[in-house]
């Protein structure tokens, strides 16, 4: 499978504004329905409101000790931002700068989960604050791609 060629990517499932209202609600930690090999797409949105005059350094953190046979692609506001290979490693933490992550607005995070064999997988992902510094450069504009129907 070539990265960038997933059906969900071609359809824009990872882009802000894509309507997931008809999708079944499922936590990433539940893995795929049926618990076997396969592929799934998980999408969520959330708002952030960090204080003015601060630099907040944030990362997305997958579980550190999981060696289950899965791969996951992480998308933040439409941008492919990381690849987790749980049974090989080593990267579990993906720092995301302002401009990609909207520190004072709505954000969309998507995970394309690929379970490699008939073992049920249960990944976890959380947004962690690595550091908060006084100062800051002021508001940073985001220029993230948004979903729109194909013509």
- Helix percentage: under 10%
Instruction: Give the biggest sheet.
Output: 4 strands, antiparallel
- Count of helix runs: 1
CATH class: Mainly Beta
In the CATH scheme, what's the topology name? Jelly Rolls
Organism: Ganoderma sinense ZZ0214-1
Domain Beta-galactosidase jelly roll: 7-118
GO molecular function: beta-galactosidase activity
InterPro entries: BetaGal_jelly_roll_dom, Galactose-bd-like_sf
Description:
Pfam families: BetaGal_ABD2. Keywords: Glycosidase, Hydrolase. This is Beta-galactosidase jelly roll domain-containing protein. With 151 residues, the protein is mainly beta. The protein has a single domain, classed as Galactose-binding domain-like (Jelly Rolls, Sandwich), CATH 2.60.120. The protein is 3% helix and 38% strand. The strands form 2 sheets. Strands 1-6-3-4 form a 4-stranded antiparallel beta sheet, with no helix packed on it. Strands 5-2-7 form a 3-stranded antiparallel beta sheet, with no helix packed on it. A hairpin with a 2-residue loop joins strand 3 and strand 4. The longest helix has 5 residues. The model has no long low-confidence stretch (mean pLDDT 90).
Topology of this structure?
Layout lengths: L6 H5 L26 E10 L6 E9 L7 E7 L2 E7 L7 E4 L9 E10 L9 E10 L17
Keywords: Glycosidase, Hydrolase
Protein name: Beta-galactosidase jelly roll domain-containing protein
Organism: Ganoderma sinense ZZ0214-1
């Amino acid at each position: 499978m070539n990265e960038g060629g997933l059906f969900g990517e071609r359809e824009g499932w990872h882009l802000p504004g894509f309507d997931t209202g008809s999708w079944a609600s499922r936590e990433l930690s539940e893995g795929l329905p049926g618990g076997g090999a396969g592929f799934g797409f998980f999408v969520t949105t959330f708002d952030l409101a960090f204080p003015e005059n601060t630099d907040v350094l944030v990362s997305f953190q997958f579980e550190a000790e999981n060696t289950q046979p899965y791969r996951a692609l992480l998308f933040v506001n439409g941008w492919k931002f990381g690849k987790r290979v749980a049974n090989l490693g080593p990267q579990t933490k993906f720092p995301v700068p302002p401009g990609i992550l909207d520190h004072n607005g709505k954000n969309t995070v998507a995970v394309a989960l690929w379970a490699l064999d008939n073992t049920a997988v249960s990944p976890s992902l959380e947004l962690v604050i690595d550091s908060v510094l006084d100062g800051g450069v002021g508001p940073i504009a985001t220029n993230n791609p948004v979903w729109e129907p194909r013509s």
